[in-house]
Amino acid sequence: MPKNRHTSPSPSELRDMTPSGAGWLPHGYHLDPHSHAQGQLVYAAAGALATTTERGTWVAPANRMTWTPPEFIHSHRFYGRTDVRLLTIPVDLCGQLVERPSVFAVSPLLREAVLALTDRPEVRPGAYARLLAVVIDELTYSPEQSLHLPEPRDDRLRTVTDLLHADPARPTTLAELGRAAGASERTLSRLFHRELGMSFHRWRTTLRIHHALAHLTDGMSVTDTAIACGWSNPSSFIDAFSGVVGQTPGRYQADGQHGTR
């Protein structure tokens, strides 16, 4: 993995990365499913990224960081021109973090430690290990903010989620989707709660927020993003986005544009 963060790494460089690395990736850059023997932290200092495993998709805008434990098969997709920072976590340290893929809030201290680890070479023996210990400590206390979109195993539920993935803005009701899936609205509602741990409305809202993050990161206006993702007006979109992401779409877009040093 190149140390110069103004270069674009190849897929093989991303897969076979050294303990730290950085690079600029274009909008839509995709890394096919793979796994690592060690843990991996990925931070988008600008832009956004999505990490997908068999358990679903986790999205991390520029104020969050993804965590993938060892041996989890996963893929990445990057949105907007992304300043990506990657850290390998040795197996003996992974036990201090959660045992499942997740996304964490990035505190100012955590951000600066990650930038230092990926911006400059180690000039004093042990400096890298000390900074990495700071990262682990910060993650231990950082709240999980997963923006997790789980995926179903039930065929009827998968039919519904596939239709929504194909067109997140479609206003179709659960009853109408049920006719395509061969299941009643009540059955599907029960499956959403049992398999995915959330309501149909929450799942679809999270899906739309995932798409909204991608559109905003790529420079689409707030109003156009709201329409493209299925909201009837910008106000309702801003309320939903703020409730999930923790900041307004406009603030998120501004922070992403000015997130790098």
TrEMBL record:
PROSITE patterns, alphabetized: HTH_ARAC_FAMILY_2 (PS01124)
Signal sequence coordinates: none
InterPro entries: AraC-bd (IPR003313), Homeodomain-like_sf (IPR009057), HTH_AraC (IPR018060), RmlC-like_jellyroll (IPR014710), RmlC_Cupin_sf (IPR011051)
Keywords, sorted A to Z: DNA-binding, Transcription, Transcription regulation
Gene3D superfamilies: Homeodomain-like, Jelly Rolls
Domain HTH araC/xylS-type: 158-255
SUPFAM superfamilies xref list: Homeodomain-like (SSF46689), RmlC-like cupins (SSF51182)
Entry's transmembrane regions: none
Record-given protein name: Helix-turn-helix domain-containing protein
Organism in which the protein naturally occurs: Streptomyces formicae
